[in-house]
Amino acid sequence: MTPMIKLARYLKYFLKEVIIGPLFKLTEAIFELIVPLVMAKIIDVGIKNGDAAYIWKMGGLMVLLGVAGLCFALICQYLASKASQGVGTMLRNDLFLHINSFSYAEIDKLGTPSLITRITNDVNQIQVAVAMLIRLVVRAPFLVVGAAVMAMMLDLKLSLTFLAAAPLVAIALYLVMSRSIPFYRVIQKKLDKISLITRENLTGVRVIRAFSKQKDEEKRFDDASDDLTKTAVRVGKISALLNPITFMIMNMAIVAVVWFGGMRVDTGALTQGQVIAFVNYMTQIMLALVVVANLVILFTKASACAARINEVLETKPSVEEKTVQPAVPVKGAPKIEFKNVSFSYHKDSLEYALENIDFKILPGQTIGVIGGTGSGKTTLVSLIPRFYDVTCGQILVDGVDVRDYPFHQLRSQIGMVPQRAVLFSGTIRQNMRWGKADATDQEILEALEIAQAAEFVDKLKNGLDTLILQEGKNLSGGQKQRLTIARALVSRPQILILDDSASALDFATDYKLRKAIAAKTRETTVFLVSQRANTVKRADQIIVLDDGRVAGIGTHLELYENCPIYREICLSQLSEEEAKRQ
């Protein structure tokens, strides 16, 4: 229950509901404990003496107790719903905010599907637990204890029947719970796997159909679903034993009460009404114990979910904002400088994705970054906006370490266009204003012109008001890439990073794009990350990466003459005559 205790801090915002709700439920339970005594009086006085008026009077009292109990129960239900939904809302909001503070490293580690399951399914389990905490956690144990006390007050000897049954029920509870609890943690992990497969299938539906892999994916989903089902059925079978065992023990206890109670009635130690009241109390105890058993199951599930939620909340971002004070750029400093930078994706690992990177870039320069697959190109440019922190060395922007910038100041001067073009549901205008919320239509159109997107946007019936479906499903790959480039250009960033963001464009459009960027963003420092030699050959400097190390830095002609790796890349794509031309 320790994970649940850690989340108990959210209940302080609903103290009124947490305190008043159980009190109303407790009052309802008290009324419920009085009912068997009223029933005993009806039998022993009203029915025995044939007093109809007394029967009606006590019957009215029973109805009154029932109506009052119902009203108290409804009030408690309302307060429990208010508190549970409130806790769920706050917890979801805090989870979402905390996840948004993660760097790429934490998201990679926890996994997107798992985070989605935790913020939805796991939080829902916590909401149910809070509702049950207010409604039943006080009522059920009170009914067990209260009914036992009332039974003892009626006849101490006969109540020994309950005392004999209680340890048997406790043993049954322990045996069932000890075997079912571990399965609930496993179930949540298997839900993560189903979430992962579902997400992959929905986002990769075109690829799946292109390779006619529907049957394979259906089988993969069925296997994961069957695995979850088998685990759920297994734990369900164990949990299902709880009610029959408990009912069997308590029903045997009731039989014993009726048997020995009848003997006590014969001796005059008990009345018939008291025996009926005793049976009612035993029934209340039995039902309350079943509720307690189900509460244990529910809180076990909630505890497993709380542990997963706490894991997210206790995960500290590896990239943290160290200051909120604006950094002061150093006059005359290079726009970007890498000083002996090394980076590893795994903390304390000696396996580096980038190693001993040194270079300087002046304001307004265009820099090409090229290398083979897995050479570290994307990793290199991801370090500039601090999506990851360097393992060793320093990265300076305007002479200031990127770690000394507030996030907003650093990232507001960087326009990032990632490899995978990501657009959000909404209009084109709304997507274009991500970098500059107050951007005018003229500024948006200028950015679209540079990105070579104005032509196809003009042809759309609604222009900038055209709706983009989820993930840009109603656009081609090239259209999405051009729109993401335009989105980065709208804010006129000081540093523009194009991470292989023209891979879906034809050579002519790619050439026009580079020409427009060079002509209309002269003061912007541009990074062109590409696998195409033609894309980077006219850059002021080209950085050649090979297995995380710098294989060469220089102009196209310098590298073609002096860098074997760059020369090999060029000749694999261009003729020797084309490769020798700047």
What do these coordinates show?
This protein is α/β, with parallel strands linked by helices and 582 residues long. Helix content is 63%, strand content 10%. It is built from 22 helices and twelve strands. It has helices at 2-7, 15-49, 52-100, 104-110, 112-135, 139-154, 160-203, 205-210, 214-240, 242-267, 272-313, 377-382, 407-412, 428-432, 441-450, 454-459, 477-490, 507-520, 533-536, 556-562, 564-573, 576-579, and strands at residues 336-343, 354-361, 366-371, 392-397, 400-401, 414-417, 426-427, 467-468, 495-499, 525-529, 541-546, 549-554. The strands form three sheets. The chain has a six-stranded mixed β-sheet with strand order 6-9-10-3-11-12. The protein has a four-stranded antiparallel β-sheet with strand order 2-1-4-5, with no helix packed on it. A hairpin with a 2-residue loop joins β4 and β5 (400-401). It is elongated and about 120 Å long.
Provide a compact summary of the structure.
With 582 residues, the chain is α/β, with parallel strands linked by helices.
Mean of residue pLDDT values:
84
Instruction: Assign a percent range to the helix content.
Output: 55-70%
> Low-confidence spans: pLDDT under 50, at least 5 residues?
none
Given the C-alpha coordinates, what overall shape results?
elongated
Radius of gyration: 35 Å
Class per helix and strand makeup: alpha/beta
| Termini separation | 68 Å
- Main-sheet strand order equals 6-9-10-3-11-12
